[in-house]
Amino acid sequence: MNGSTTNGTKKENFHVLIIGAGTTGLSVAQGLKTHGIPFTVFERQDVGKYVNWQREWSMGFHWGSNYIDHWPQKLQDNVWTTQNDPNAKMTEEQDHFIPIKNGKTGELVVKVPSETVRRVSRTKLRLLLSTDIDVQYGKKFLKLDDHGDKITAYFEDGTTAEGNVVIGCDSVHSKVREAVLSPEKINLEHVPVTIFNLTQQFTREQAKFIRSFEHPWLLIGVHPDQPMLAFINIANVKESDKPESVVFQMLYSKWGGSTPDTNEERHRVFKELGQQLCEPFKSASAWVKEDTWIHPDHLTHWPKPEKWDNHGGRITLAGDAAHPMAPYRGQGLNNALEDASYYIKAITSAVEGKKSLSEAVDAYDAEVLERGRREIDVSYKQAVAFHNFEMMQNSTIARHGTAKVAAAN
């Protein structure tokens, strides 16, 4: 049955609805495009907000680079142009070890091994993956109807779309997840940290000072006396010869408490935390401009993921929709890319008649669920450890680095 699905539908008549135009959804779209399988991508944000108002941050991109072979070759060739600083000069050691410092004294405590410490810009990666993809913006997903051989998706603007299958790539608070699981089985829980995550550009001299410490891309400090983590990395470099054009991402978190309601109060607490830290964390926090917006972030994860009803392979999940996790091991992007790669293989095998749709997606779901459970658990434990100096030194990331959980275990 080459070129047709197991129910006799020709490849060109098989249609995939992708809900969410983040990295996961776009990666799925590029894979389907490579294999000539029709699809439509729907994004809840309008185009202006999606393109121009994205919050910038960088993402760890290590073992996930092994799961981009389903992208068109030109995207694979250009993926490293999305690095936070494509021109950064690193030694061999700097490219394979992440330094963690005593956040009070500045002493190097742990060198975390990693396949690579390269990080990519969220904005740049989305832009690359949007190449030749027609995204339908302003489409807030509401619900699904399963008609057996077809699925209808309904959107808040009153429009609908019909396809053979749906994949929910719609982030942590996935609406597609709500369509395939009862509310009592979606037990997202708050990660009990007070967190401050912002971006900032500094003066030329300030930026050069921050980048003069230990590593050209990222700095991590764990306080020995306070349950506190500090993280500074390069989110983007607008002009390579201008330090003042560097966009720094700063993430400080403290175990317990709650994120203040007002931006003014968030600034006050953020800067108080900064004054308890060594350089360059101390000065960097003091230099943050008072009019900088600090988003009131609240972290959630899914401690006990449940098997969802995939409706005979017609509806499934990927990325944060499938396994929302604490971000303290930098695994979100890498797992999302693996999800996308496996989903492309599953759909391709069904379309080519090698497996039934149900068989192919059942196998995909089982792998994603099991892998997600492991990583959610380890990432949460790492979140705890990063706020406990003694625990951090024997944590998963200290012992096994950023490797996949199965390999680490």
Automatic annotation (TrEMBL):
Lineage: Eukaryota, Fungi, Dikarya, Ascomycota, Pezizomycotina
Pfam (any one): FAD_binding_3
Key words of the record: FAD, Flavoprotein, Monooxygenase, Oxidoreductase
GO molecular function, one term: monooxygenase activity
Domain of life assignment: Eukaryota
Co-factor(s): FAD
Residues covered by the FAD-binding domain: 95-376
Record's protein name: FAD/NAD(P)-binding domain-containing protein
Entry keyword Flavoprotein: yes
